[in-house]
Amino acid sequence: MAEGERPQDGWPDGRSRYDRHAVGDDAQGKWQQAVEAALRAGSLRLEPTDSPQIVTLRGACPRCGHQLMGVDIYREVLLGVAPANDDQWAIINLICDCLESHEGRPQERSGCGWAPSLTVAIEWPQPGAGHD
Fold first, then answer.
1. pTM for the complete prediction?
2. SS3 for 67?
3. DSSP state of 124
4. Contact, 124 vs 89, CB < 8 A?
């Protein structure tokens, strides 16, 4: 995504209403594309940890643009769900857990509501990228 370019539907949009009902192939594809665009743009990033078997996904929610709390991704889990080859992907549920206000959100919830029932594929960092 080029600088200043926004994904479909004007995302990210901090004024997004709370919506926990994103389901189906359209929502799945939209979420995957938004996450990929955010990773390319650098608003989401994989950060190394002290362990080469764990990376942390940090940054802004692709839908609302608010800061996520961070998601640890474990290589052992990845190896259990992906073929053992050089192109390893983590299949995770990336759920917005921002602490910002969203109209219509129940008091006991956090985030903008996206996307508890949708999974995304995230490529595991290649050797030599600080994760050897």
1. 0.79
2. strand
3. P
4. yes
